Amino acid sequence: MKKEIEKYLAVPGKKVLLKDHQTSYNGDQEKEDGKEEMDEVKERLSKLQETLYAANSHSILILFQAMDAAGKDSAISHVMSGLNPQGCQVYSFKAPTSEEYEHDFLWRHYKALPERGRIGIHNRSHYENVLVCKVHPEYVLNENIPGYQDLKLIDDKFWKKRYESIRSFEQHISENGITIIKIFLNVSKEEQKSRFLDRINDPAKNWKFSSSDITERGRWDEYMKAYETAIEETSTEQAPWYIIPADKKWHARLAISQILEEHFNRLDLKFPVLAEEEAKKLDEIKELLLKE
Predict the structure, then answer these.
(1) 18 vs 228: CA distance, rounded Å
(2) Cβ-count burial of 43 within 10 angstroms (0-12 exposed, 13-18 middle, 19+ buried)?
(3) Between 20 and 30 A from 168 (CA), which of 31, 111, 187, 197?
(4) SS3 content of the chain, % helix, strand, coil (to 5)
(5) What is the DSSP secondary structure assignment for residue 207, as one 8-state letter?
């Protein structure tokens, strides 16, 4: 793994303290240099995507989690802009519907997994069930889980089981050909404030802002703790978490692109080679076409 990428990895089994992770880190680069490098990575990713599609043996799932205004939407837009949209599937998960509440919490996410040969991007993910629900355990009651109809029963044991379910789910899909990359955009509280004010002051961005964003901001420390625990409990070799400094959007996008390229390269995919008989047929067809 490239040294730069190692800085962002939440090492499996190691304690996670977000205060130890810089939110404004820029890799000692200037913005213009970073953008130039981003263009180069995009070009390579485009070629790697072709091999993924042609090989049709693996798929890639990228999960984005963050506090409001951390830049998830723009990161997805910029990082994926060089890829063929026919090979990408993007899902933005919101509060569960009544139908989704009639199933276990992983059901809607399993349905959204990418097919072989494709890249899946989940804007928010099954981790909402150990993040938002951890801060607001009353939401769990909507799931109507047997034995958990009372808020008092949603204790540490409950959350331990939920982390275990997530690890098992991710191990299963990993063993079946899905490369999982989990991105936490680590934005500072000060930068979030600045971006909120920008949304309020710009009429064209008003739609991005909700009064509930301020309510959740008031529980910042609770969310940070929930993120620390979730990342610590579920960063594994098969499904690693990356904590990306997000105060400088251009650097966050570059870091995500580099991580994606690294995981692509690990797959070491090749274009399929035709069987000898099929290759002979192509030669025959070529001769026919040349004689026309």
Answers:
(1) 7
(2) exposed
(3) 187
(4) 60, 10, 30
(5) G
DSSP state of 186: E
Fold of 3-291: Rossmann fold (3.40.50)
E strand or H helix at 121? strand 119-123
pLDDT at 181: 98
Can you tell me the distance from the alpha carbon of 81 to that of 29, in angstroms, rounded to the nearest whole number?
22
For the chain, residues with pLDDT lower than 70 are 1, 3
Q: What is the pTM of this model?
A: 0.93
> Is residue 4 within 8 Å of residue 27, measured between CB atoms?
yes
Alpha-carbon gap, residue 107 to 165, rounded angstroms: 12
In the numeric block, the tokens 């938002």 are attached to 132
Lookup result for tokens 């009429």: 203
**Helix crossing, 249-267 with 72-79: angle to 10°?**
50
Burial (CB count within 10 angstroms: exposed 0-12, middle 13-18, buried 19+), residue 90: middle
Q: How far is the C-alpha of 169 from the C-alpha of 125, rounded, in Å?
A: 13
What is the secondary structure of 166-185 as a DSSP string?
Answer: HHHHHHHHHHTTEEEEEEEE
Summarised one tens digit per residue, pLDDT across range 33-54 is 898 999 999 999 999 999 999 9
> Exposed (0-12), middle (13-18) or buried (19+): which is 61, by Cβ within 10 Å?
buried
